[in-house]
Specification:
It contains eight helices and 13 strands. With about 325 residues, it is an alpha+beta fold. The protein has one domain. Helix 3 crosses helix 6, helix 4 packs antiparallel against helix 5 and helix 7 crosses helix 8.
Length: about 325
C-alpha cells in the first residue's frame, strides 16, 4: 500500500463544509496577501508534515496513519453536528478526540510548541552551565573563558536559536488530555444567518468568554472557567465548547456583530491561511490585519529570538 506524502493539516472532509455549489472554496494566504479558489483536495496540505525521517532515512507514518483513522470517525459524526443534533457520549468523545488532534496538528501549534521547547532548552542549558560553573568555582577550577561564556549566554541579544519544527510533533502528546477536558465541557450551537463564518489553518483554540480579564503571561488553560472554544462547523454554524451549565446542545442565534468577532478570532489565531465559501474582500483585509501569527503558548522565560525551521542545517 502506497504511503501518503500529501498530508493535510486541515482535513478535506472538514473543508468540504465550506465549499460552494461548484465544490470549491476560497483561501487567503497572509504570507503573500493572495486570494485563490481551489478544492479541499488541493488545500491545506504539506508534504510529509507529520512523517519525520528515522535514522535510516525512511518515513515514520504513525501520526499520519492515526490521524486518518480519527478523521474517518469524525467524518461520520459531522452530519449530526451540522444538523445541530445532540451526540451520545461515545460520539461526543470521538469528536472531542478529533478536535484535540485538530489543535495539535495545526502548523500554528507545531510552531508554537517548537518555540516553547526551544525556550525550555535554552533555559536548561543556561541553568546547567551556571550550576557547573558554581562547582568549578568551589574547586578553584573556574576559568576566564567559563565566565565569558556564561556572560554571553546571559545576554539573550547575543545569539539566536533555530529549532527544528519536527520538535513540535510532541504537541500530539497533549491530545488525549485535551480531549478528556473537552468532553467535560458544555457543547452548544451558534447559528449565523446574517454573516458568513470563516475558518483557518488553526481553527481549534480557546479564548476568554467571561467578563473578567485573564492573565496571558503564561498562557491560558482550557480548564479555566472562562475558556471557550468557538469551532466553525460551516459558513453558518459554530460548535461552542464552554463551561456553562444547563444548556447543552441548544441552538442560539449569532448576531452579525458576534459572528464578525468569531471571524476575527479565526484571523488572529490562524498560522497563515483563512478559508471561506464566498469571496469577500473583507476577509482578505482581516487576514492581513492579523498577518503576524501569535504565540499563545508562553514559557515566561527570558530567551533569545527563536526561529522554527523545517530542517536544521548539518
Amino acid at each position: 500500500m502506497a504511503r501518503t506524502k500529501k498530508q493535510h493539516f486541515v482535513p478535506r472532509f472538514y473543508l468540504r463544509t465550506f465549499i460552494d455549489k461548484d465544490g470549491q472554496l476560497w483561501t487567503h494566504d497572509s504570507d503573500q496577501d493572495a486570494l485563490r479558489q481551489t478544492t479541499p483536495e488541493n488545500t491545506g496540505y504539506e508534504t510529509n508534515i507529520y512523517s519525520p525521517e528515522n535514522e535510516n532515512g525512511s518515513r515514520i507514518d504513525f501520526i499520519e496513519d492515526n490521524l486518518a483513522k480519527i478523521e474517518s470517525i469524525a467524518a461520520s459524526i459531522l452530519p449530526d453536528l451540522l444538523a445541530c443534533k445532540k451526540l451520545e457520549l461515545e460520539a461526543k468523545t470521538n469528536f472531542a478526540v478529533f478536535l484535540a488532534t485538530m489543535f495539535a496538528r495545526s502548523p500554528a501549534q507545531l510552531r508554537q510548541f517548537a518555540i516553547y521547547m526551544g525556550e525550555t532548552a535554552d533555559w536548561m542549558g543556561a541553568h546547567s552551565l551556571k550550576h557547573e560553573n558554581q562547582k568549578k568555582e568551589e574547586l578553584g577550577q573556574l576559568t576566564e573563558v567559563d565566565v565569558k561564556v556564561q556572560e554571553l549566554l546571559q545576554n539573550k541579544d547575543n545569539y539566536k536559536m533555530d529549532v527544528d519544527r519536527r520538535v513540535g510533533l510532541l504537541a500530539f502528546q497533549q491530545s488525549k488530555l485535551l480531549a478528556a477536558i473537552m468532553v467535560e465541557m458544555n457543547w452548544t450551537f451558534e447559528i449565523s444567518d446574517e454573516q458568513q463564518l470563516i475558518t483557518s489553518d488553526n481553527s481549534v483554540f480557546w479564548v476568554s468568554g467571561g467578563p473578567a480579564s485573564v492573565s496571558r503571561d503564561y498562557g491560558f488553560g482550557l480548564k479555566h472557567q472562562q475558556a471557550v472554544i468557538p469551532f466553525p462547523l460551516s459558513p453558518n454554524i459554530i460548535l461552542r465548547l464552554d463551561w456553562l451549565r444547563g444548556d447543552s446542545w441548544k441552538k442560539y442565534s449569532l448576531n452579525k456583530q458576534r459572528a464578525k468577532l468569531a471571524n476575527q478570532y479565526q484571523a488572529k489565531h490562524k498560522n497563515r491561511f483563512l478559508y471561506f465559501q464566498t469571496c469577500d474582500s473583507g476577509f482578505s483585509t482581516l487576514g492581513m490585519k492579523y498577518a503576524k501569527p501569535i504565540q499563545q503558548l508562553k514559557s515566561g522565560l527570558d530567551t533569545p529570538e527563536i526561529s522554527v525551521v523545517r530542517k536544521l542545517n548539518n
